[in-house]
Amino acid sequence: ERSRIDGPRCLRVAFAAMFCQKVFCQKPSIDSQRIAVRCAFLLVSERGMHSGSGMRGFSRGFSIMSPKVFRCSFGKRDFSVAAEKPPFDKILIANRGEIACRVAKTARRMGIKTVAIYSEADARAVHVKSCDEAVCVGPPASSQSYLNIDAIVEAMKLTGAQAVHPGYGFLSENAGFAERLEKEGLVFIGPSPFSIRSMGDKIESKKLAIQAGVNTIPGQLGLILTESDAVRVSKAIGYPVMIKASAGGGGKGMRIAHNDEEAAEGFRLSKAEASASFGDDRIFIEKFVQQPRHIEIQIIADKHGNVLYLPERECSIQRRNQKVIEEAPSPFLDEQTWRAMGEQAVSLAKAVHYHSAGTVEMMVDGDRNFYFLEMNTRLQVEHPVTELVTGLDLVEMMIRVAAGESIKIHQNEIKPKGWAMESRIYAEDSLRNFLPSVGVLHRYIPPDESEDETGVVRIDAGVEEGSEISIHYDPMIGKLVTHAPTRIEAINKMKTALDAFVVKGVRCNINFVRDVMDNPRFMSGDLTTHFIAQEYPPPGFRGHALTEVEGNELSAIAAMLHMQHKQQAKLFLQPEGSHVAGRQTVGRAALVSVMSPDHIIGEQELVVSIEGTVGEVVKKRLHIAARRPKLGHVISTEFVITVQDRVPRILSADLPSNSGLYLAKCAETGMVRIVQAFEKTNSGYILSMSGSPYKITIRSERLEELSKYMPIKVEVDHSSHLCTPMPGKMHSIAVKEGETVIAGQEICVVEAMKMQNVLRAPKDSTVKKIHAKVGQNLALDECIMEFE
Description:
Helices cover 29% and strands 32% of the residues. The chain is of the alpha+beta class. The longest helix has 24 residues, at 548-571.
């Protein structure tokens, strides 16, 4: 009827695509979806968007996002078209992973077609599926694919892409790439080659910053050529010093030195990392600011001389100079300091004729004195926190600026709204000094994204279940971002989301970032770049240490799960209906449980032992009584539990979901806990709470009494062998067979994911046999050498 009234044939095609899906429950093909969206665009062009005429009666699959944007939803895919011609018809995204997916999302909303590039290792990657077209640009090695300028330019010509968005990393700060695009008549969605070159060299950028009136850290601006030069310059500046790669970024090629030995070693490792990551091994040294905060200013500038600074980002939670948790605004700065930093950032941007999005990174001391560190001439990994507190889409602004449009907002309109927090989720083993972890994501179930009056939960990821984390690229899985009216509310949202984040197949740092969220010092906002080193001193993070309250809660939750599984074993009859989380729609078992004459259908005295990766085994004695199942349920979902002879509490929970999430609630205390059920063992469970796994043993009082007679397993001594803690390539070996070494001495350096990882002697010993060679690819736990 609508198509008859509105007339155009294109509208009938659009509704035909919807009809297939909504009426016959058939998934339309990608082609039919694109046809529908194009039809919608033609409809918008004909009828206009201002009055909304002709839009009444549309399905919920169609919506008007703004006066200029029209969206169609088909299943899990969103297609957006603009009522006005987009800045570009098609752009190529010269990146991979989450940032490629992130750029594609905005481009799609703007009505711009996208082209993905991929290496042979990424042929089935998520970012390839997120774009309209995809072109293979080479083998797995970055130097032959994502850094292959010739192949990328050829892909643009092949697909007709007019512009390229570089994301971050790879070619995002490569002036040569931007120049090549200019020569080919293509658009680089970023700053000019002059700006990139001026700010990309840390030595030259510091000189320019001084000329622009920007505060800088004292240091040696000349290049350091040898280890002896590094020691000499470090002494002259005064320890501690920061050894930095001139072309560095992302925490690579950076070391802190407190003495001559660390200066020599730091120079050597930084030089090697810089060469491997950037193809530029130039090194300089500057004074290291004590008790520093890493705070940065996001700017956005157009080609018409307009430059804006946005709310600051606090990035002090770092490991190896690599950011882990970011937030906006900073809990430390006042408005006066923010504006002073912003004005200096704008001065620097104008000094190099900057346009596009960029970030001026600053070091701030305890008195709010700030010093220029570097300018990143690209989109930052942590840009989502700025987007959430400003409501701006930085990727869209970059695209519009590249097309020559001017910025439509003014500086006095920019103020932070609420608080945003970001956790980077890396495939790395937090319990083994954050060494990279590779493998296949056998289970990947992120928390649900949401946006309501309490705030926002956002996921920026470039993986899915079945994706592979390989040694070729950065180990980032994705970014979890929350937004709320206050900092504490944003942190609480982050805790809940992290608890519901399921990743299996590789080890990841969720346990670590979740522990940081509980840290009293972090909660108070008392942060410096030394936070991780100070709060997790050697041997480093070893897991979450349960508090008394958390131990009581976990023991009660384990007892509930234990009782539910016992009931399930006793009451489960041949199914006469469907079962979902313990609920049976029709069946004898449900009727039997409901007809039970007693309010309490079972009770037991239990001893619950909790063994984590840190601290001693915790034992809790408790009494649990199962209440009669509710109508329609097979098993109990409410229990009366008394832990350690304390006040009885009523807890409720259904069986774990398909993803293993077990949601427990206590009405009296207001407790809401999300626990992940990893595994059911012979004597209990392996459960994860607050991000860390715990081995749970559940016994009756009698079995607990007899358990003292069980034999104790003797731990095997592995100190006679040095094994590689992560897959990688042997970069160098510092000892020879027969050489005597002392505990902590450098033995070798393994390169993994472009980082140089020093392996040291586990104890005083003699090198008996060396099994590995320089340049050899090493598997996880492969023996490198033996000691005697």
